[in-house]
Each structure stands twice: as C-alpha cells, then as structure tokens.
TrEMBL record:
It comes from Litoreibacter meonggei. Residues 7-389 form the Ammonium transporter AmtB-like domain. This is Ammonium transporter. InterPro entries: Ammonium/urea_transptr (IPR029020), Ammonium_transpt (IPR001905), Ammonium_transpt_CS (IPR018047), NH4_transpt_AmtB-like_dom (IPR024041). GO terms for molecular function: ammonium channel activity.
Amino acid sequence: MNGADTAWILVATALVLFMTLPGLALFYGGLVRARNVLSVFMQCFSIACVMSILWLVAGYSIAFGEGNAFWGGLDKAFLNGVTADSLSGTIPEVLFFAFQMTFAIITPALIVGAYVERISYAFIMVFSSLWMLICYAPVAHWIWGGGLLAGAEWSLFEDGVNDFAGGIVVHQTAGIAALILAVFLGPRRKATTPPHNPGMVMIGAAMLWVGWFGFNGGSQLAANGGAAMAITVTHISAAMASITWAAWERVRFGKASLVGMVTGTIAGLASITPASGSVGPMEAMLIGGIAGIMCQELCGVVKNLLKIDDTLDVFAVHGVGGIFGIIMLAVFGHASWTAQLGGLLVVGIWTAVVTAGLVVLVRMILPIRVSEEDEITGLDLASHGERAYELTS
C-alpha cells in the first residue's frame, strides 16, 4: 500500500460523491420548474442510496470480479473475501470499491435529466436499479475490468478501448439511456418553461466542476504527475467550453446566458473525461473549444429536429460529449481508431437494447408516467407531499 496514493483516492472518492450530492442535484434542480425541484433532489438522493447498496450486493463483483470476458461473476458479492488489508494496486481494495461506487451512483443519476417533471418515482427506482446492474456494471467490466473491450486475451480489439474516466462507461451509456427513456415517456405537457432558479444551476455546475477533479484525477489511482495532468486538462477543457458556448450563444441569439455558459462547462468536462489521462493542455483546449459549440448545436437537433423532449439535454451534453472525447483520442493518436469506434458501437448497441428492454419490462409492472393531473400539480406535492417554497409562510 502506498500512503500518498491512498490519501489522494480517499479525497477523490469524496469529490466524486460531491458531484452527485449536491452538485448534480442542484444543477438539475435549478433547471426545472419550482413545483418539481424537490422531486429532482429526491430522485438524485434516492439513486445515490440505492446504487450504493446494489454496488455492495453485486455491482462491484460484476464489474471488477475476475469472471470472464462478459462479466466479473459474483465471487466478490457483498465484498466477499475483501478485508481492510486487501490491495488493489497500491491502494486498499475497499477504497477502490468505494471510489468506483461513486461512478455507479452518478451514471444513473445523470439520466435523471431526461425524464424530470413527468416520471413515476417507483419506476425510476426499479429501472435505475436494474439498469446499473445489467447495463452499467457489465460495461465497466468490459473496459475497466479486463473484459471484452479491455485489450486482454479475449478482447474484441487487440489494443483495447482507451477510456480513462468514463467517456463510454459513464457518459455514452447515460446519454443513450436518457434519449431512449425520453422517447418512451413522450414530451412534457409544457416543455418551454424556463429554469426556475439559474443561480442554483450555476452553483450546481460549480460543484460538478470541482468534483470532476476527483472524477478524472482520481482515475489515475495514484498521487503522481498523471493525476496532476488529468486535473489540469480537465480544468482547461471546462473553461474553454464555457467560453465557446457563451460566445456561440452571443452570435446566435445576441446574448450569452448564465445557464448556457455553465452548461458549456459540463460539456467540456464530459468531453475531456475519456481523454484526461492521455492529452496535454493544448489538446484539452481544442477538445473543450469544439465541445462548447458542438454540444450546443446538438441540443437543438434533439429537441427541434428529432422532436425528443430530453428535458435537460443529457444526450446532447453528456452522451455527445463523451463520444466526442473517445473519438478525439484516436484523432490525436492516443488510441486505435478500430478500438475506439468499435467500443462505441458495441456499448451503444448494448445500452440501447438493455435500456429499451428494461423500460418495456418495468412498465408492465409499474406506470412509467404520472397522471396529467399530477404533472400539472407538480411532482413535489403529487409524489412527495412537499413544496420547495412556501411563499405564504
């Protein structure tokens, strides 16, 4: 065990949890109507709790057990055989478990942005649980656990997919799942309402930015120059994407918005995620600069051309950003074109099939959408019996 590596990953684990709670919750919560903000908080918080337990029960074993090319098996279910003295590289294995648990939390939580303001709470809990175990955990095994796409002896691609911190594992899977769920749900009754609290959106985005240092820097799993470079390029990409998103808004609409600028921040962070272990500052600046414009344009394509109400642009920002970062690794010569594109194709098909199948299955048991009356009332009161703002008290 290396004490410095262990100390850094302890901090990184806390930072990644901080991304979901409270960062993502505030970011998404500020974007919805005032009558739905508590429902978003509840969805993010509940997912964090349930995914943590499921990661202990089976998720970690499926993702990082020895198993075979397709899954890790159940030998490490409930952390069987893992003690405080067990090591994963130079850090305690239980710390590696906890660090990866925070990734298993934020990935289904990202999908929340696609279905806010109209989905059944019970459906979310059952769907997210099954999706993490059947979609996310196997994909994590394929790329990070020595499985199907990792370049091991049974890998589909000799070089293996280069996905440092989750362009495919986190962002592509969440983005595609979000798009499919939005299609099944259909649009909101009133889809043009502006964010109820842009200040809350900015605060949430700022927390995500800080937490992302743990997300990318921690993925080095060591306290060294690689972690320092990952943090640096993460910051540069986020800053550049924020600038280009705001500038492009200014060109298109005559004004740059706060919500737009901080959404650009997230686009830059998602895009640099898979590349943060390989690229330098200049490459990061290019990735972020392109992402700020490209992801903004894709938001319009999804909503206006495809007519899909992906409410908070999960696919356009996270899905497209993660896919873009994976491709840019090949563009810059840090990865094989065959492995990168092949990995995107394999995981994309798997995610689409599993997500659609789970939606069909779960909605046979539970309603996927709340009633029209509940949607008008707002999910805070209809689903949870609370209001975020008691203006007369």
